[in-house]
Amino acid sequence: MKNAALAVVFTVLISGCAFSRPDVSRENWKIRTYKDVTKEDAVDAAREVIRLSDPDDIIFTTTPDGFSAVRRQLSYYVVESGLDVFVFEFTARETESGVQARIDIHERIERASFSTLGLPVTNIGRPQTSYAYQLFYARMDYLLGLNDRWQNCKDGGAASNTQAENLGLSAFCGRFVSDLSPPPFSRKNSQ
Questions:
Q1: H or E element, residue 170
Q2: Residue 32 belongs to what H/E stretch?
Q3: Model-level pTM?
Q4: DSSP code of 114?
Q5: What span, in angstroms and rounded, lies between the C-alpha atoms of 69 and 50?
Q6: How far is CA 43 from CA 6, 99, 115, 129, in A?
Q7: C-alpha–C-alpha distance, residues 188 and 141, integer Å
Q8: Are 186 and 143 in contact (CB under 8 A)?
Q9: Based on the number of CB atoms within 10 Å of its own CB, is 170 exposed (0-12), middle (13-18) or buried (19 or more)?
Q10: Is the pLDDT of residue 84 over 50?
């Protein structure tokens, strides 16, 4: 009887811990609704956020509601090589409540080194935390004149490339990213 009671208490404790975290949908990370912003302004601001992450290595393709952008980075060191590919798909649609913006980020990060015996180790997917989306929209807000401060990678939590990868910020703060700030005149409504 005592063992059964302990099992019940243990099960309740474990269940409570398992369900104590809020169920936050990852889809909500990707979407933001803007009031008093045109669809064109939203697309232009999003394009500039992506462009500033690495101005020389991004290829944009315009779509009816936004754009797709691809950035490839090849790195080679004596002890390691890498290929990073980031695909950004941005859409902006006019709704009754404003312009709904959506960013999808797809990542492929590949590394080969002495520690992997020269074999490539590849991570494919999407950022697993909200940091990349928060940084993207904070920068977009700045360009739209809705925020007074440009968020850099350190503001997003990435003081190093390793931290950037661990936080899911590689798309904006990974290897060979300059973390450029826009010139002051690029903000909407700045005089």
A1: helix 170-173
A2: strand 31-34
A3: 0.76
A4: G
A5: 8
A6: 58, 10, 42, 24
A7: 10
A8: yes
A9: buried
A10: yes
- DSSP-based three-state secondary structure for 89: strand
Task: Dig out the tokens for 64 from the structure.
Answer: 């009816």
**What confidence tens digit (pLDDT) does each residue in 40-53 have?**
999 999 999 999 88
Counting every residue written for the chain, the total comes to 191
Give the N- to C-terminal CA distance of the chain in Å, as an integer: 77
Q: Is the dihedral of CA 60, 64, 66, 68 positive or negative?
A: negative
Q: Hey, what amino acid is at 23?
A: D
Angstrom CA distances, 188 to 44, 175, 180, stand at: 10, 29, 18
Is the predicted pLDDT of residue 21 greater than 80, yes or no? no
Three-state secondary structure along 61-113?
A: EEECCEEEEEEEEEEECCCEEEEEEEEEEEEEEEECCEEEEEEEEEEEEEEEE
Structural tokens at position 23: 């169920």
Phi, psi of 26 (to 5 degrees): -65, -25
Which of 87, 89, 158, 85 is CA-nearest to residue 122? 85
Q: Which residue has the tokens 């005089």?
A: 191
